[in-house]
Amino acid sequence: MRYVRYAFWVPLGIVLISVSLANSAIVDLKLMPDAVAELLGFNPSISLPLFVVVLGGIATGLIVGFVWEWIREHKHRRAAGGNAREVRKLSREVNKLKTQKNAGKDEVLAILEDAN
């Protein structure tokens, strides 16, 4: 399984490195359009290599997607937690009933009876 993982990550790393080297030109990243910047009186911008902008956009999209999915699955995690609590409660109740049923009996016979 480790080799399959390497077979995936090594080519991906090579592709990302080659894309990064091919797109190393500096670009200006503006946070708002010029018209809005004139109204507000400031124009925040930063100069970054193009590959940083592209890979940063991909990373931001992945993070937003993971958070969105985590929030969306909250009801399923809550239901699973409730089910797990119910299973633990019922398991304790079954053990309690088995103990009451087998009170005063030989331990080996009680185990054999519970197995059936």
From TrEMBL:
<feature type="transmembrane region" description="Helical">
    <location>
        <begin position="48"/>
        <end position="68"/>
    </location>
</feature>
<keyword id="KW-1133">Transmembrane helix</keyword>
<protein>
    <submittedName>
        <fullName>DUF1049 domain-containing protein</fullName>
    </submittedName>
</protein>
<keyword id="KW-0812">Transmembrane</keyword>
<keyword id="KW-0472">Membrane</keyword>
